[in-house]
Write a structure and sequence with these properties.
By secondary structure, this protein is an all-alpha fold. The protein is about 75% helix and about 0% strand. It has a domain of about 210 residues. A two-stranded antiparallel ribbon has the order 1-4. A two-stranded antiparallel ribbon has the order 2-3.
C-alpha cells in the first residue's frame, strides 16, 4: 500500500467522487430543462443527433486530457495535434493512400506527438504547461506549413471515410459508438488495472508513489501518449465529417477539454476524478454551446460563458475541499 493511504482515505475519496458526480449530473439535468424551455428546437431529433456528434468529438479529447490531469499535468497541444493529423491524413488520402493506412498513420502521428510531450515532461523535467504550450505553437506551425495555410480536400476518398464522422449504425451515430468504446476502455483501465492505480497515485502524491516503486517517468509518458492518440482519433472523425483537412482544425479544443474535465470533478492538482465525470462535463459544455447557438449568441460571446463556467467549477472544487 502507498504510504499515507489508508482504507478510510480511499473510502472518503470514493464518497467524494460520488457526490461530485451527483452534483454535475443534477447540473446537466437542470441545464437541459432550461435549454428546452428557452428553445423548442433543442429537443428536436435532428438537433439531438448533432449534439451527440459534437459531444463525441470533443469528449474523446477530454478523456485523453483526463489521464494527463489525473497525474497533475496539463496538455495544451491537443488542438494542434488535431490540426497536424487533419492536414497530413487529408493530404495522404488526396494522394491515393488507402483509408485504413491513412488512419493508422494519423493515429501514429498523434501518439508520437503525445509521447514527445511526455518525454519532455518526464525525462526533460520541463513543466507540463511550458512543454505542451511549446508543442502547441510548434505543431500548429507544422500544420500551417505543411498545408501552406490552406484547407486540403480529400478527393475521391471523402466518400470512403465519411462513415466515421457522418455515418450511423441504425440510429446511433458512429462517433457516439467510438466515444462509448473510448469511455468504457478508459474507465476499465483507470479503475481495474495497476496502471490506473499508478496514475491516481502519481497525481495524489508523486513522492509517495516513487517511494512505493512506481515508475513516474514511464507512466507520465504513457498518459501524454494516450492524450495524443485520442486527439488523433478525434481528428480522424473531424476530417471524415467535414471531408476536408484544415490546418486550424482543433483551435480552442484544449480549452473545451480542460473545461469538461474540471466541470466533471477531476482536480487540477491530480489524483481525483475520472472519465465518467468528464463524460458529464462534455455533455454540459455541448448542451451549453448548442443552446447558445440556437438562441443566436455569437461564438465570441460563448467563450465568455465557458470561461465563467471553468472559474465556477474551480471555486466549487476548492469550497468542497475546505
Amino acid at each position: 500500500m502507498i504510504r499515507g493511504v489508508t482504507a478510510d482515505n480511499i473510502a472518503g475519496v470514493t464518497r467524494k467522487r460520488s457526490f461530485i458526480k451527483l452534483d454535475v449530473s443534477l447540473a446537466l439535468v437542470i441545464l437541459c430543462v432550461i435549454a428546452a424551455i428557452l428553445s423548442p428546437a433543442f429537443l428536436t431529433p435532428m438537433n439531438l443527433m448533432n449534439l451527440t456528434r459534437q459531444v463525441a468529438i470533443s469528449g474523446i479529447v477530454g478523456v485523453g486530457m483526463t489521464f494527463v490531469i489525473l497525474t497533475g499535468g496539463i496538455d495544451l497541444s491537443v488542438g494542434a495535434i488535431i490540426g497536424v493529423v487533419a492536414v497530413i491524413v487529408a493530404k495522404c488520402l488526396a494522394g491515393g493512400m488507402s483509408v485504413p493506412l491513412a488512419m493508422l498513420l494519423g493515429l501514429a502521428i498523434g501518439a508520437l506527438a503525445g509521447s514527445i510531450n511526455g518525454i519532455g515532461v518526464a525525462l526533460g523535467k520541463i513543466q507540463p504547461f511550458i512543454m505542451t504550450l511549446a508543442s502547441m505553437v510548434a505543431l500548429r506551425g507544422v500544420a500551417l506549413t505543411f498545408s501552406d495555410g490552406r484547407p486540403i480536400g480529400l478527393g475521391p476518398a471523402s466518400s470512403k471515410i465519411y462513415w466515421l464522422g457522418g455515418g450511423s449504425l441504425g440510429i446511433v451515430p458512429v462517433p457516439v459508438i467510438v466515444f462509448t468504446v473510448v469511455i468504457a476502455a478508459s474507465y476499465f483501465m483507470l479503475k481495474y488495472t495497476f496502471v490506473g492505480r499508478y496514475i491516481y497515485a502519481i497525481g495524489g502524491n508523486v513522492e509517495a508513489a516513487r517511494l512505493s516503486g512506481i515508475s513516474i517517468e514511464r507512466n507520465q509518458i504513457l498518459v501524454y501518449t494516450i492524450s495524443g492518440f485520442l486527439s488523433a482519433l478525434a481528428a480522424l472523425i473531424w476530417v471524415s465529417r467535414l471531408t476536408v483537412g484544415e490546418p486550424t482544425a482543433g483551435s480552442g479544443v484544449e480549452l473545451d477539454a480542460i473545461a469538461m474535465v474540471v466541470i466533471g470533478g477531476t482536480s487540477l492538482m491530480g489524483g481525483e476524478g475520472g472519465v465518467i465525470g468528464t463524460l458529464i462535463g462534455a455533455m454540459i459544455i455541448a448542451v451549453l454551446a448548442n443552446v447558445l447557438n440556437l438562441l443566436g449568441i455569437s461564438p465570441w460571446s460563448q467563450q465568455i460563458f465557458k470561461g465563467l463556467i471553468i472559474i465556477l467549477a474551480v471555486l466549487i472544487e476548492r469550497f468542497k475541499k475546505r
